[in-house]
Amino acid sequence: MHESRFLFFVSRLSSSAYIKATFLVSVCSSPLRASSHCSTAVGISFCRSQIEEYVSMSKMGENGAANCHQHVALAPMEVSVELGFQHGASKCFDDDGRLKRTGTVWTASAHIITAVIGSGVLSLAWAIGQLGWVAGPAVMLLFSFVTFYTSALLADCYRSGDPVTGRRNYTYMDAVQANLNGIKVKICGYLQYLNIVGVAIGYTIAASISMVAIKRSNCFNKEGDDSPCHVNSNPYMIMFGVAEIVLSQIPDFDQISWLSILAAIMSFTYSSIGLVLGIVQVIQNGGIKGSLTGISIGTVSQMDKIWRSLQAFGDIAFAYSYSIILIEIQDTIKSSPSSEAKVMKKATLTSVTVTTIFYMLCGCMGYAAFGDLAPGNLLTGFGFYNPYWLLDIANAAIVIHLVGAYQVYCQPLFAFIEKWTHKTWPKSEFIAKEIQVPIASGRCYNLNLFRLTWRTVFVIVTTVVSMLLPFFNDVVGFLGAIGFWPLTVYFPVEMYIVQKKIPKWSTRWVCLQLLSLACLVITVASAAGSVAGVVSDLKVYRPFKSS
């Protein structure tokens, strides 16, 4: 539970309850205490449960409330002042008055891998097929380096001022606001949250395609490979949406680490299956397919070759897109003498290295297996038909992974909207009040009516849009294009220049600006290719029809 719910307006408690709660806080915060209650996560739970018990008992006595009662959450700064932690950390609380963060390099890596190794990996064989054996792997390595480098710059912007004791920036937007100003902050906000909405739509499309693939592979196994096996994807999008509505009620980012770990395991599962099937197909072919320059002009027209090559850039960019949630992931890392930025850089290096290896293997083996005929989605485009049960496992793993990845991406947007509404209408019970609903083992779930309503509406809207635009490759390419330069390159570079006070026109400043300019050119070109692809798809698409 968030630290802002520790003391439910302590000042309103009876004097005895106030003294007891204050005593527990002092025990948890005192540097001279003999007890080790607060030295571990168990101790944190002890402190929290004891304080809440006294507050609950007091409210029961005063108001006749039940064990699970209603309350209004305090803002983090109000609580940190109330607890006396505004200027220092304790065993239970960090230096900003919030509960001790418990994230490590491994949990941060799991979050990143969950976000990065997503549906984008399945389009890489097609992307390399458009670019060829020379440009394809080269572009992939280029994007991996740029992503790692700019992520390292962004990690340095988590704290303003001193890298160990400076003020924390809890979100990407907070970091931009602390280092930049004016119109840039607004543009960043619009781009970040628009990109998150787009990712949610893309993941809904990808999940439904995988569920349809399971249905079709079983159909092909029974009816034969030549059977049409038409399946409508809309029911599967609705199923995915229902699952996301339930999971979206998890209040905070730090409470979904288990979901990230599960999703990361699933991503390795289906990536490994795709890799193995590619290797087997290459062996069956008796050699490697493909060419140095990619798909030949005879197979597609010269103009299509250009558009598809540009779209491939967008697909690869999307495959590495996670900068928009990097600060939020970093905010889960526990404090250390070496700073959270160093831990985050290790996590970034680990995860980007692992994903690049997987991307190279899956993308290259998929292209080697099918050449110019490499499907847009390796496991659902039916480059493979058998063994159908293995394809079913892979596609089921994709769906489970995307369920988790959807939450990892959307939590920053959820938090932003809820924080803004709480500031705008602080006295609204619909927005601020939390109702504790009893669940198993005497525990309670904090039900917030606004959170329930708005998150449900968000999932419904993204699901409906997904049903209208089920173009996996083109949507993936467009999302990667519009989000890559501004969010992965431009803002991290600009913030780093301000944070480190790099002189204008110095060698380092010029190099950073050239990097930003080059990535801008790539973004514009790949966005144009993806838009052309969407326009082409719309000419033959009929909404809500079986495929």
How would you describe this structure to a colleague?
Helix 4 packs across helix 9, helix 6 runs antiparallel to helix 7 and helix 9 runs antiparallel to helix 13. By secondary structure, this protein is mainly alpha-helical. It is globular, with a radius of gyration of 25 Å. Helices cover 66% and strands 3% of the residues. It has a three-stranded antiparallel beta sheet with strand order 1-4-5. A two-stranded antiparallel sheet has the order 2-3.
What labels would you give this structure?
two-stranded antiparallel ribbon; mainly alpha; 547 residues; 17 helices
Briefly characterize the structure.
The protein has 547 residues and is mainly alpha-helical. It has helices at 15-29, 41-63, 76-83, 105-116, 124-155, 172-179, 183-223, 234-247, 257-285, 302-319, 326-330, 340-370, 388-424, 429-432, 449-468, 472-499, 507-540; strands at 70-72, 159-160, 167-168, 433-438, 444-448.
